[in-house]
Design a protein that fits this description.
Layout (H helix, E strand, L loop, with lengths): L7 H12 L4 H8 L3 H14 L15 H12 L5 H7 L5 H12 L23 H13 L4 H8 L3 H14 L19 H36 L1
Helix pairs in contact: 1-3, 2-3, 4-6, 6-10, 7-8, 7-9, 7-10, 8-9
């Protein structure tokens, strides 16, 4: 399925086709958008109108208690992930999925602040090694850009851009091309080994969390049958 961003107008056109008696699965094939995403758009449109289809420049506020309650309801098997998202007014089922992965990997769930903070705009100069570590921590924490920004005292925008670069080009994409010397040349052998170990640890942690999450979903599906 396509992961590109869809403008509100295009989402609306797809929803119009849904109202014209096309099924979500037919639209999935036609527009290359997962049917669950289309249903999420439908829910937002029904509740908020066209405004609900626009990409927000801020994020919603969720308390730790709400996150835990939503996770427990989802893991109980009584509700689907989409039903829980609707019950708790969660912006998207993928948000809930991220909380569950964090919960299953025994990471601490924190309150989500609303709006933008000073860390959204204030950045700082970083080394290549720092950028890699920040990206790996962010990816291991379900792409919680704000948490990474707060932890490493960098801006939200910096973390977001570094993650995108890393996903597209790996370590090499995080190098500062403005200088004449390559940043990795400044690292000692010990630092390079530590960096590789950090990457392996994060990857193993991610795989373990995904495995636990999939087992939980399989158990829920068995209960629902």
């Amino acid at each position: 399925m396509s992961k590109r961003s869809y403008p509100a107008e295009e989402k609306y056109e797809i929803l119009k086709a849904l109202d014209e008696h096309y099924s979500p699965y037919e639209l999935e094939s036609k527009y290359n958008v997962h049917h669950s995403t289309i249903l999420d758009w439908k829910r937002k449109y029904d509740k908020y109108g066209l405004e609900g289809l626009k990409e927000s420049s801020t994020w919603k506020k969720y308390s730790k208690e709400l996150k835990l309650a939503a996770i427990r309801d989802c893991l109980s098997g009584k509700y689907s992930m989409r039903e829980v998202a609707r019950l708790y007014d969660i912006s998207d089922a993928s948000v809930l999925r991220g909380w569950i992965k964090k919960y299953n990997s025994h990471r601490d769930l924190k309150d989500t602040s609303q709006g933008r903070t000073s860390s959204m705009t204030k950045g700082r100069k970083t080394t290549w090694e720092e950028r890699i570590q920040i990206v790996l921590d962010c990816l291991g924490n379900e792409k919680d850009y704000q948490d990474a920004a707060n932890t490493y005292n960098v801006s939200y925008q910096q973390v977001y851009q570094w993650v995108k670069k890393y996903e597209n080009g790996g370590d090499e994409a995080l190098k500062d091309k403005r200088g004449n010397k390559k940043e990795e040349a400044k690292l000692t052998l010990e630092e390079k080994i530590k960096l590789e170990m950090k990457k392996l640890e994060r990857e193993n942690e991610r795989l373990r969390a995904e495995n636990v999450f999939l087992k939980k979903l399989e158990e829920i599906e068995r209960r629902r049958k």
